[in-house]
Amino acid sequence: MTNHWVDIKNADLVLVMGGNAAEAHPCGFKWVIEAKKDRKAKLVVVDPRFTRSAAVSDYYAPIRSGSDIAFLGGVINYLLTNDKIHHDYVKAYTNASFLIDEGYKFEDGFFSGYNPEKRSYAKDTWKYQTDKDGYAKVDPTLQDPRCAFQLMKQHYSRYTPELVSKVTGTPKDAFLKVCEHIAETAAPNKTMTICYALGWTQHSVGSQNIRTMAMIQLLLGNMGMAGGGINALRGHANVQGITDMCLYSEVLPGYLAAPTDADKNWAEFVDKRTPKTLRPNQMNYGQNFSKWATSLMKAWYGAAATDKNDYAYDWLPKKDAAYDVLAIFERMHQGKMNGFLCQGFNPLASVSNKKKVGDAMAKLKYLVVIDPLATDTSEFWKPHGEFNEADPAKIQTEVFRLPANLFAEESGSFTNSGRVIQWHWKAADGPGESKGDIEIMAGLFLKLKEMYAKDGGKLPEPILNLTWPHRIAAKPSPEELLMEISGKALGEVLDPKDKTKVLAKPGEQLAGFAQLRDDGSTACGNWIYGGCWSQAGNLTARRDNSDPSGLGQTLNWGYAWPANRRILYNRASCDVSGKPWDPKRAVIKWSGTAWGGNDVPDMRPDAAPDENVMPFIMTAEGVARLFAPALAEGPFPEHYEPFETPLDRNPFHPNNPKAVSNPAARVYKGDMEVFGKAKDFPYVATTYRLVEHFHFWTKHARINAVLQPEQFVEIGEELAKEKGIANGDKVKVRSNRGFIKAVAVVTKRIKALDVDGKKVHTVGIPLHWGFKGVAKPGYITNTLTPFVGDANSQTPEFKAFLVNIEKA
Amino acid sequence: MQVTRRQFFKVCGAGLSGSSIALMGFSPAPALAEVRSFKLARATETRNMCPYCSVSCGVLIYTTGDKSKNAKADIIHIEGDPDNPVNRGTLCPKGAGLLDMVKSPNRLKWPEVREPGSSEWKRISWDDAISRIATHMKKDRDANLVEKNAEGVTVNRWNTTGFLASSAAGNEAGYLTVKILRGLGAVALDTQARI
Q1: Can you tell me the ipTM of this complex?
Q2: What CATH architecture applies to the domain A325-410+429-464?
């Protein structure tokens, strides 16, 4: 979230699309209800199902799953043709005025630079025109036909209400009604917040779904405002924190792009990741990369990382290929992996195409499952009747299962969706011999270290030199670890403006990431968490919930990253001169000498407005991007069909069969072949979650299993009638990868839609069942789902695929 | 006079009202002990957080005992923390069932191994489990760590053992996990967060 949970109460319009907060995040959704009650805010819900969020909305519009960009692109067209944008904001704070390279174009579904063999783009034309100093050229009048604003206008002019309705199945009048609601927040003192979740991310165009909305929020001037922003309602209690710690291959803690084979030494590594400022006077905060990276290497390798050995750069593994979860299972399926450890993750249930995942794990030498619960994954080798057919005698994988603790059994911090890091305290020991994840990982590491010290082996240095400053080596404390994450001084940290002034003495905790240095004098495990444990102590454990501004900022409750800032880009909540667009909800303002107010300013505190330092300090331009070259499938989001589409064409590009689905998405050999076709699988399926269950966990908890005991699928009355299915009948749902059986629940909540001249039905599939648990055993829903992901994040396409359904 | 709970209700059922019996000093101790306020008054309160969705609701966990050394804490009740500015004391149907998650009969209690080709689990000690897993990891790493790529560039990557990290682990466990894995040279690592 760029904003935070309580801030939702400050909105004038809440759009819930690509999510169902009333059921998936009920205690956060209460702030939507507060906004409705206290501010008379409106709630608009766009979803394939009439969800419980829709049930309390002011307006609901149905949409075909997988057509969100068509809808949102249509909203952009509506805002531009009806002149419902926040002009001053767009001109000053976005790259609308930037001139784009003459070679950039969009034709028949492809952007310039497409290579169909590689299924990827060369991006050399997706860039700004630059002047002799390397700065981007701009046209403040927005009239130049090559400026981003004009190109955007041209791009979305094709998204007419008629075509939008044809592609999305949303009736035209309903689409226009939603547009009218959204357009009202173009007024400088009105804001819309968007609450989305997996309904946007789990598509082969997931990142672009969100980007289209970001463009809308920029056109309306809603970024940085109280009650505005782009708000991802995330899945687990610490999914944000684990993302920030970067337990994935592309990045190192704090989103530092991980080194690849192309980065031959430290200088190259740092240089390529240090952006060049693209407009005069901008902060371009990313230019501090070397300070964050050096401090990370000092945290990991201490005295063994020096400027003489490139801060131990050689010891960092260099990435040569994709290693996201789909890529890992693809490699495993090809027999290229020997071992696999799952920590609190149940991939047999959570990853697409269960059969492929199970077959892949059967090729391993060893599998280690670290979990509080007996998961389905840990028993992939064991027959569980029709729900898991397996022959243990044929599976040679050695499987270990290690008992881990739950939240109640350990202390530590979680980071919520609003980036607030909060400490929690241990209440009791776990059952039996269970241990915390920290102790388990420490045990494994110390055993390996002992073996490398005693027996030698390949490259022992990074193992033997990894810092381990823990009082009890086998049991590092969460307090010690959070202090390491937050950062400390190794040498004296001096004030760059006055070198006689010492900001931090050796051994002291640092006040924040601004004190990090690239000369080896600071250590910091994750720069964005810098300062969360300062000399003042553990700021994540603060419990002062006072809220003097009334905006719900609670600046002394826990600690929000970065720098305890609660609303990102909050400089944009003021006009160019530093006056709040809405004085009644002022987040910060310029006092005449400094920025300040009800939040930590997202701006250099003494940057006077006439210095023209723009609010989006993390971009090299200083402004937000309407035209964004970073994404894989194009600088402007374009509608592509899901890989399994009920249509035989992309109505936006009816004559280009190669532009039906995302041209830049990665598809493995063997997976393309098992995409289903509409003639065999005529219905759109979408997975969803129930208010009584949490993923695949609560099937192990008795009360939740009592509340929702048995697997079901939801279909509309019309489809039920066509197929002769009655409420309560057992049905079989098939995709081209397998089938599940479940009880049919026939409702009025899912209706058939008219799409491109066809009637399209949707089958809703809740996903909480499996063969382990105290709920009635059920089929794993991901037996059905396709093995393809978003081209940028590789998040699998769980939300739009094709099935058939019949009475079982 | 000692009366069991069952006898107490039997007597009540015979026509006397419970409150009047209590007024007469005729109250069964176990029945009063079941009144919720009494149970929690003797419990220790610990501030924690719901591990489910990312609202990360504050919860209060009540345990038996007073944290003295010989009193083993047992979790008896979990409810929303009214001080938490986001959930303000509320919990949803998922969070309201947290006690049953903590007490799930499917909690793992000790390390186990399923040997190749076997159809059952076997209980093993922690030492045994850690030694066997570390031996597997070292053998695979020593055999497959790539020190230099085809161009002779130092790459030091180990991509034949993979790791999937939890989104339910705390920041500290996550950080230590990534520090260890990168130290070992792992590149095949991912997290629940992607999904």
Answers
A1: 0.98
A2: 3-Layer(aba) Sandwich (3.40)
